[in-house]
Design brief:
6-stranded parallel sheet, single chain, 6-stranded mixed sheet, alpha/beta
């Protein structure tokens, strides 16, 4: 009988040749993948030759990191902390920038798997079924950072509770007419949970926000949206924004229309970017611990790679930074 090649084994097992190579070199594979390959190997009594053993090393010591963009405060700082933690563990970082393109992120997941990286850290802006299906289809461990995965290892920010606490602070400062600016709910963390936390908290006080504005992450778009809706905005005393970046654009537009943040109007947000404390009226905002998130993500991924026990989900804490951008109406008569 003709001796099988690795290519033929891969085809019969329904996997890639790299996966077969990892199998023979004792690499980390899913249980069902190992069983598929073993079934073919046992059936044909296959013994790997010297060439097969000489294929790519079991451990590449490379972790692929897929980011939505490189220019945002959150992405760039998270990436810095991830790289620091990987280097401490003798791993190198291979960065893929998806530029907010979901299809590109999915393509990069598959591409990194083919490149035989030891693991993948994914910072998705959305979390559709396509992500879950793609992650399930590869034999490389994946950990999500910043989004909720149904069956995937993930490190998540406590967006709902953070939004609740921020809204409670705004309410405690005497505000009852509160507008909200967010992003699309396909972004589960920023678009859905932050908005939900704000709205549920308002409902607890028998309040609602009739003025909800949805845009994307660009400050130019928040600037334009406020300009277009300034008459509706004037009917409120505070605007809560889903990110500091949205708040920056909003503040510029508000002040051009005579609404002075920290004096006769209030703004609050999420992110605590480096420049938020340096504004004319420093921004009241939620600070998420990016450093802790990065460390937990790397630790979780390395445990999965080593097949050690680890939690499926970790929730990262936050801190409410109260500053001058939210006026205390309890001690202020608004003109």
């Amino acid at each position: 009988m003709k001796k099988l090649t690795i290519v033929e084994i891969a085809r019969m097992a329904g996997v890639g040749t790299t996966t077969v190579s990892r199998y023979f070199n004792g690499g980390n594979l899913k249980k069902d993948t190992k069983e598929k390959i073993k079934e073919v190997v046992d059936k044909y009594n296959y013994t790997p030759n010297t060439f097969a053993k000489a294929l790519k090393s079991t451990d590449s010591k490379i972790i692929g990191v897929i980011v939505p963009c490189l220019h945002s405060y959150v992405s760039s700082n998270t990436l810095k902390y991830i790289d620091e933690n990987l280097k401490k563990n003798n791993y190198e970082t291979l960065i893929m920038n998806a530029n907010f393109d979901e299809e590109k992120q999915l393509e990069y997941i598959r591409k990194l798997a083919r490149m035989n990286v030891d693991g993948i850290i994914l910072l998705p802006t959305t979390m559709s079924k396509s992500y879950e299906d793609t992650i399930k289809s590869i034999d490389v461990p994946v950990v999500l950072l910043g989004q909720e995965g149904e069956y995937t290892y993930s490190v998540e920010y406590n967006d709902f509770n953070a939004a609740r606490d921020l809204t409670n602070f705004v309410l405690a400062s005497g505000h009852r007419k509160i507008a909200y600016m967010g992003v699309g709910e396909e972004d589960i963390a920023v678009g859905y949970y932050r908005k939900l936390g704000v709205m549920r908290t308002l409902e607890n006080y028998n309040l609602d926000s009739k003025d909800v504005f949805i845009t994307n992450f660009g400050l130019e778009n928040s600037y334009r949206l406020i300009n277009e809706n300034i008459d509706r905005i004037r009917e409120n005393t505070c605007l809560i924004c889903a990110t500091d970046n949205l708040a920056y654009g909003a503040i510029k537009a508000l002040e051009e229309h005579g609404l002075s943040v920290g004096d006769n109007f209030s703004v609050a947000a999420f992110g605590d970017y480096a420049s938020s404390s340096l504004l004319k009226s420093p921004l009241t905002t939620i600070k998420f611990d990016l450093k802790e998130a990065a460390k937990n993500t790397v630790d979780m991924l390395l445990k999965v790679i080593k097949e050690e026990e680890t939690e499926m989900k970790i929730l990262i804490g936050y801190e409410l930074k109260t500053r001058k951008s939210v006026v205390d109406l309890n001690n202020y008569n608004r003109k």
